[in-house]
Every structure is written in structure tokens, then in C-alpha cells.
Amino acid sequence: MTSSAAAPSRFETVAIVGVGLIGGSLGGALRRKKLARVIGVGRNAGRLEAARQAGVIDEAARDIRDAAARADLIVFCTPVDRIAADAREAASVSRKGTLLTDAGSVKGPICDALASGLPDGITFIGSHPLAGSEKQGFEHSNPQLYEGRVCVITPLPHSPRGEVARLRHFWEAVGSRVIELSPVDHDRALAQTSHVPHVVAAALAATLDRDCAPLAASGFRDTTRIAGGDPDLWVAILLENAEAVLASLKKYENVLGAFTSAVGSRDAESLRQLLAEARDRRESLRPSGFPAGHIVQ
Amino acid sequence: MTSSAAAPSRFETVAIVGVGLIGGSLGGALRRKKLARVIGVGRNAGRLEAARQAGVIDEAARDIRDAAARADLIVFCTPVDRIAADAREAASVSRKGTLLTDAGSVKGPICDALASGLPDGITFIGSHPLAGSEKQGFEHSNPQLYEGRVCVITPLPHSPRGEVARLRHFWEAVGSRVIELSPVDHDRALAQTSHVPHVVAAALAATLDRDCAPLAASGFRDTTRIAGGDPDLWVAILLENAEAVLASLKKYENVLGAFTSAVGSRDAESLRQLLAEARDRRESLRPSGFPAGHIVQ
To answer: Are A19 and A40 in contact (CB under 8 A)?
Structure first.
């Protein structure tokens, strides 16, 4: 055992279900900081063993129940449409006092599904660390991925406050700054800051004629970088958060329409105002993603 | 004099009109490689002197005619709606054999305006080095900015081939890979690879609710980075290339509409296909912007 009751994570054994970029980075951070013993859970024995040899987990488990029965904290880093079912299965064999959380980009459906029906003494509270990449696989993991990043946690009104505090301390221990939001507020915000940007970038990438590719410079590449993400993961995210995504897309299309109208009518003054407003909003983002004075703690 | 007739640029004295990020980087490259003596032209004497002290130009000239009368090559790095007028003024005092070019992001209107009416022996050929940044000012210039980047040149059918060759060699001497296109083909391609991406990014940035800013992570920041560009410069670019921009925006809006429909009807299979196509197009871009085998020389 590499941690003690005094360690900030307050979890002796952490099971990570899904050891890819997100799960692998978390495992690496926990191990490097000696915060917990890490059991990695996955379906592919070869990949799990490679992750163990790479040092991102202490132990590989192919059976989620085997790991769940021994863990104090279980973090589901699987696609958003699989998390609730995986969590139910794990909860069925977990010890009393075990905390379950996840790293999914959508929170409402997952938190709703797990709001009730778990065994007594087993708590699920949603998490969403705002860290990641269009890349996949533990090979791209980074034990410092969570340093200085925001992690949203989404307790429900009935979530035990002691468990909320433990979860907050867990993410803080790997370097994150924790923001508490309701699942609905999280999903509405992320539609705007992540899910619609993904659609916008993907639509732009899909619009590129192949013979124009040599003329795509760094601006095009930056604007479409996130379109390199895994299609299956993003289908799940966009459909799990469809309502909020559609509302945000509508808003985006309206703003885009204003730009189109200004260009169409050669209205330089309107166009300048639209561009200036865009620049101001963009510049209000500090490099870390935190505008000054907006840190919610 | 720091160059000779044998130097690859084949220009002894180069005047750069507009010593910002683009002009300053060019001046720095020419000076570092000892390709030419560089006269910087600008309206602000203090800024020009600072640029001289920073080593990006050899000499500062506030009067475009003074510089033009002594230059073998004049490069206009001013906003696209000012280039044609500046070039006419310079041409009126240039020596026979002087070549004029620019660095503007739109080529049709400029090349049309300068296709005829210049004094005998003075040639204008458009250039567009695909290098830049949302930043401004010579302080952000970089003498290696053009290394490995594409530079499009847009000669007209009647452009003297010897002058085309000199211009090509000039850009190659600062490290660029030169692509020759007609002004119309350039503008149509750049609408798609640069101008519409700017609108798309700006509209996305403008859609961000300020209270969601803490939840904007690296994906949002990358997708909107170019929205930090100068509004006045972009009004000029978008309006000078309005027809091609509107055509490309229309195409983009159609693709975006397909994504919206797929989310709206919860059509996972269509959404997956759209996302997969987007990812494939994105991944076909090599880091330098060159897909393998697509280099047009």
C-alpha cells in the first residue's frame, strides 16, 4: 500500500475503469504522487498489461467486480453511454463506504440514472475533469494532465456532504481546481464550451475540399484540431446531451447568420462590431481558461 | 549593401511597406540571411525607429516615395484594402525594372486593380505567404516565420515570366515553398481555408456566455484562437473576398445543418458518418499543412 489515511486523496485503493488517455493520466498521477494503489480495469488484457508496464496502474483487472470489491473509490473513464451501467455493476459488489465517480463529458443522464437504486452506503457523484485531447490511449497519458485544470463535480442535493468533500479533495490532490455545479448547469455550459465547438470544428473540417488542403495553414489546423477526436465517443456525448447541444447550436447558428448577413450586405460597420465582440470574448479567456475573478471554488 | 547580384533574392534593396508581424518577419529574414538591404516604410516614426533598433529593418522611411525610388523590390504588407493605392503611389516614382508584390490575404481585387496602368517596366505580381498569427506588431515578428511555409504567388497571363521567376526565388530564399495560382483560384481556396474559418471561430467566440468562460478548456481555446485577430484587418479581408466567402459559408452552413439534423433526430449512424468524415479530412492534413503528395510546385 502506498498511501495512508492522512494522504489527501483519502482513498487507499482506486479502481479506474477504462485506462485510456484520461484514466491512464489519472492512474499515473495517483501513482506518482503516491496517493493510492491503482487497479486498472479493462476488457483487453494485453493493453492493460502494457499500461501496467508503462507504470500508469499498479495492477490490471479484467473483471470489474473483482476490482470493485476491493476499491475505496471507483472512477469510470468509459464512454458516457456506458458509465451508468458499469457503475451499477460495480456498486452491486462494492463495500459500504465506497465512492463512485466518473470522468464523462455529460452529467445529467448519468447522475439521473444513478441518483437512486444503489446499495446502501454506496454513493455516486459525477465528475468531469476538463482535460483531454483528441488523442486516445494510455500511451498519450500524462500524469500532469490534471495540474491546474478545472474539474467540475456535480453532486445532487441529497449527496452526502462528506462524500462531496472527499471527491473534491481527490481531484485537488491531482492538481485540479474544483468547481461544483448541478448536472443540468454543467451540461448546458459544456454544450457551449465543448460539445458545440466540436460540431463547429467537425463541420469545418468536413467542408474542406481535398485540393485546397495545401492552403490550410495554422489557423485552419487550430480551428479544426478537436475534429480529430474519436467519432464513437462524440456520437455518445452529443446524443446524451442532445437538448442542450441543440439549444447552443441554435444560438451559434444565429450568430453565424449575423456574420453572413453583414458580409452579404457589405455592412462593414456591423461586421466590425461582430468581430470586435468576438475578439473581446476570446481575449477574456486567460491561457488557463480562467478569466480573472471568475474562479468558482 | 549586404547582398550581391548572385544572392538568391536578386534584389539589392527591398522596401517593406507596413512593418508589423508580417513585414517585420520578412525584414528580419532578409537581414539575417544577408539577402538585401531593407528599407521599412510606415506612418509612425517612433514605431519604425523601434523596428530599426530591433534589427528587422536597416533603415526607416516615412515617405513611401522616398523608399520606392531606391528599391528593387517593394513588398506591401498593409491591409488588403490599402495595397492597390499604396502600390500605385510607389510605382509612380519607381525605377524601371522594379518589382512590386504584397502579402495580402485576398488577391483578386488587388491584382485586377494593378493589372494595367502601371508605368512601363514596373510589374506587380501578387503574393500571399501563408504565415501569420492573431498577434500584431513587429515585436511578435520572427525571422523564421516563412521557413517551410507555403507562399502563393498569383501572376496573371501577361506577367513577365522573368519577373515571376524572380518573385518565386525571393520567397524561396526566405524558406517558403511557392505555389502558383490564379488570383481567383487563390481567393476561392483561401475563403475555405482561412476566411470562413475566421468567421466560424469568431461566431463561436461571440456565442460564449461570460459565466461559462471558466469551463472553456483547451478545445474551445484552440477552436477560437484566430478570433483574436484584428477586426479592421478582417473586415477588409472578408469584404474584399465577399463572393467567395459567401459561397464557402453557404457550404459550411449546409454541412453544419447536416450535423444539427442528425443530433435533432438522434440519428447516431448519420452523426457517426459525419464525424468520421470530418476526422478523416482533418487527419489528411500533415502538420505542415501539406498532405503527402499534394505539393503543387
So the answer is: yes
Amino acid occupying residue A256: L
Inter-chain touch A290–B214, beta carbons under 8 Å: yes
Total residues belonging to chain A: 297
The cell numbers describing B288, all together, are: 505542415
Distances (CA, A) of A198 to A165, B179, B223: 32, 31, 9
pLDDT exceeds 60 at position B3: no
Write the ipTM. Answer: 0.90
Angle between helices A242-264 and A196-207 (to 10 degrees): 50
Among the partner residues A216, A258, A275, nearest to B231 by beta-carbon distance: A275
Residues in chain A with pLDDT < 50? 1-9, 288-297
Pure H helices in B81-133: 83-91, 108-113
CA distance A92 to A97: 13
Residues of B in contact with A256 (CB under 8 A): 199-200, 203, 249, 253, 256
| A84, A43 Cβ separation under 8 angstroms | no
pLDDT at residue number A2: 43
Show contacts of B50-55: CB within 8 Å, 24+ apart: B50/B138, B51/B19, B51/B24, B51/B27, B51/B138, B54/B24, B54/B138, B54/B139, B55/B28, B55/B31
Give the list of residues 6+ apart from residue B257 with CB closer than 8 angstroms, or none. none
- Look at residue B1 and give its three-state secondary structure: coil
For B114, counting Cβ atoms within 10 Å of its Cβ (0-12 exposed, 13-18 middle, 19+ buried), the class is: buried
**E-only strand ranges, A28-182:** 37-41, 59-61, 73-76, 99-102, 123-124, 126-129, 150-154, 177-180
- Of B223, B250, B252, B272, which to mutate for an interface test with A (greatest number of A Cβ within 10 Å)? B223
Q: What share of chain A is helix, strand, coil (3-state, %, to 5)?
A: 50, 10, 40
Mean pLDDT score of chain B: 92
Which chain B residues are closer than 8 Å to A211 by Cβ?
294
Q: Which of A113, A121, A99 is nearest to A165 (CA)?
A: A99
Question: What are the contacts of A40-47 at 24+ separation with CB within 8 A?
Answer: A40/A15, A40/A16, A41/A15, A41/A16, A41/A17, A41/A67, A42/A17, A42/A18, A47/A19, A47/A138
User: Residue B289 in contact with residue A234, Cβ under 8 Å?
Assistant: no
Q: What is the DSSP letter of A195?
A: I
In whole angstroms, give the CA distance from residue A181 to residue A168. 12
User: What does pTM read for this prediction?
Assistant: 0.90
pLDDT recorded at residue A3: 41
Contacts 24+ apart (CB under 8 A), B84-91: B84/B109, B84/B110, B84/B113, B84/B114, B86/B17, B87/B114, B87/B118, B87/B124, B88/B114, B88/B117, B88/B118, B89/B64, B89/B65, B90/B15, B90/B17, B90/B64, B90/B65, B91/B118, B91/B119, B91/B122, B91/B124
Helices and strands counted in chain B (H then E)? 12, 9
Minimum Cα–Cα distance from A236: chain B residue: B268
pLDDT tens, position by position, B43-69 = 999 999 999 999 999 999 989 999 999
